[in-house]
Amino acid sequence: MFTVEQTGSYSPDSLALCREPVMPISSYLGDANVDPETKRVMGVAFEIICAALKVAAPNDELKPIIALKIIELAEAGQRDPNELSERVLIDLRNRT
Fold first, then answer.
1. Which structural domain range is residue 24 located in?
2. What does the DSSP 8-state code read for residue 25?
3. Distance CA 82, CA 80 (A)
4. Is the separation of the CB atoms in 67 and 30 below 8 Å?
5. What own/partner pairs with CB < 8 Å and gap ≥ 24 does 77-84 have?
6. What does the pLDDT read at residue 60?
7. Does the N-terminal or the C-terminal CB of the chain have fewer CB atoms within 10 Å?
8. What is the pLDDT along the chain (96 residues), one digit of tens a residue?
């Protein structure tokens, strides 16, 4: 089970909201040279956030915002998908 502090718990089944229609995080990386493990961690964080926010539409305007924030945090050294997810969710919450 995936847990994101202050937003609730999410089962792997809830991640199915993102699995089918979501564009993977790699589509936002451009030509960046990212090692496979970092790319995997960023992808997991992207799916967790999509599930938490119930973002399922392929063209949802939040997806690029989510991806860019994950990339920014990963470039700063964050490699834990739960921490990435939590920090992006906090950032999004603070924007509203």
1. 2-95
2. G
3. 6
4. no
5. 79/37, 79/38, 79/41, 80/41, 81/41, 81/42, 81/44, 81/45, 81/48, 82/2, 82/3, 82/4, 82/45, 82/48, 84/41, 84/42, 84/45
6. 86
7. C
8. 333 333 444 444 444 444 444 357 988 998 888 999 999 999 999 999 999 999 988 788 999 999 999 999 999 999 999 999 999 999 999 986
